[in-house]
Structure formats: C-alpha cells, structure tokens
C-alpha cells in the first residue's frame, strides 16, 4: 500500500474552507477529471456515500466512497474498496487567519491501471487539484470588515 501526504495553506478562515470543501456542487470546479458524482447525503455526515467516476487518460475509473469519520471543521475521513483500497483523510487546521489543508491517502492503485500511472502521476494530479481548490477557496472567501 502506498501513502501520499500533501499540505497547502489557504488564505481564508477554516470555517470558509470547510464550507467550501463540503459544497459538493463545486467539486467539479477543482476536480476536473471527475465527471459525475452521486451523493446519498452531505459529505460532512458519517455514513454518506458517493459514487465518483471519471477518466484518467482513456481509463475509466469508478469508485464508491463512504464517509467513515467526521470532526466538524477538523477532519473528513472517507474510504473506498471499489478500485483497490483507499482511505482519504482531509484535515483542516487553523493557522492564524489562514487554514492549512492536509490530505493523507493510503491507497492501492487498481491492477488494470498501466505502469506509467505510478505514485508520482497520482500525486501530481492531487497536487494540481489542491492548488485549484486553494485558488477557488481564496477567491470566494469573505472579505474582512
């Protein structure tokens, strides 16, 4: 099993970053490879499931995720066993007026994924996704009075 750890500082309060992350109607804005998502409930509620599908190059990927742990304004932990085992931990840490978003993932790439789509390929895609998330979250942050 591989492990990925990424952090990014977002110049917005943790409350805004949490709300922006939980607004699943915006996910396609910062996850461009994801083509469809079907949620059974809010992403910040334990027990919610969602089916995500998309293409990476010409390979179709479809996974069902379950939210297994939530600490409001601090943590969302999700798990899938659809395309190999994967546990994702998204942590939100207050850093003054900013928020440190930390993503940890323990995963196994599915056997049918070609060898060139290695850990580095996967991590580059996640890094780009987090950078897009940062830009959009900062653009929509409330302006202090």
Helix-strand pattern: EHHEEEEEEH
Strand ordering within the main sheet:
1-7-6-5-4-3-2
Please name the fourth-level CATH homologous superfamily of the domain at 2-31 and 69-139.
START domain
The count of β-strands is 7
Low-confidence stretches: none
- In DSSP terms, counting alpha (H) and pi (I) runs of 4 or more, how many helices? 3
Name the helicity range: 10-25%
The average pLDDT score comes to 88
Structural class: alpha+beta
**CATH architectural category of the domain at 2-31 and 69-139:** 2-Layer Sandwich
Within the CATH hierarchy, at the fold level, what is the topology of the domain at 2-31 and 69-139? Alpha-D-Glucose-1,6-Bisphosphate, Chain A, domain 4
CATH class of the domain at 2-31 and 69-139: Alpha Beta
Distance between the termini: 47 Å
CA gyration radius, whole angstroms = 15 Å
Q: What layout of secondary structure does this protein have?
A:
Elements: E1 2-10, H1 14-22, H2 27-30, E2 34-39, E3 49-56, E4 59-71, E5 75-80, E6 86-95, E7 98-107, H3 119-139
Antiparallel strand pairs: 1-7, 2-3, 3-4, 4-5, 5-6, 6-7
Structure description:
The longest helix has 21 residues, at 119-139. The protein has 145 residues and is α+β, with helices and mostly antiparallel strands. 23% of the residues lie in helices and 43% in strands. It is built from 3 helices and 7 strands, in the order βααββββββα. Strand 3 (49-56) and strand 4 (59-71) form a beta hairpin. The model has no long low-confidence stretch (mean pLDDT 88). The radius of gyration is 15 Å and the shape is globular. It has a 7-stranded antiparallel beta sheet, with helices on one face. The chain has a domain at 2-31 and 69-139: START domain (Alpha-D-Glucose-1,6-Bisphosphate, Chain A, domain 4), CATH 3.30.530.
């Amino acid at each position: 099993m591989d492990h990925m750890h990424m952090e990014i500082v977002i110049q917005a309060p943790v409350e805004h970053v949490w709300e922006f992350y939980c607004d699943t109607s915006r996910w396609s804005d910062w996850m461009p490879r994801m083509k469809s998502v079907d949620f059974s409930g809010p992403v910040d509620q334990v027990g919610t499931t969602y089916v995500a599908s998309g293409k990476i190059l010409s390979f179709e990927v479809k996974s069902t995720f379950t939210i297994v742990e939530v600490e409001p304004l601090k943590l969302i932990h999700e798990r899938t066993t659809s395309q190999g085992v994967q546990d994702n931990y998204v942590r939100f840490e207050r850093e003054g007026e900013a928020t440190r978003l930390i993503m940890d993932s323990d995963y196994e790439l599915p056997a049918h994924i070609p060898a060139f789509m290695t850990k580095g390929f996967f991590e580059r895609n996640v890094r780009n996704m987090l950078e897009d998330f940062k830009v959009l979250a900062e653009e929509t942050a409330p302006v202090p009075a």
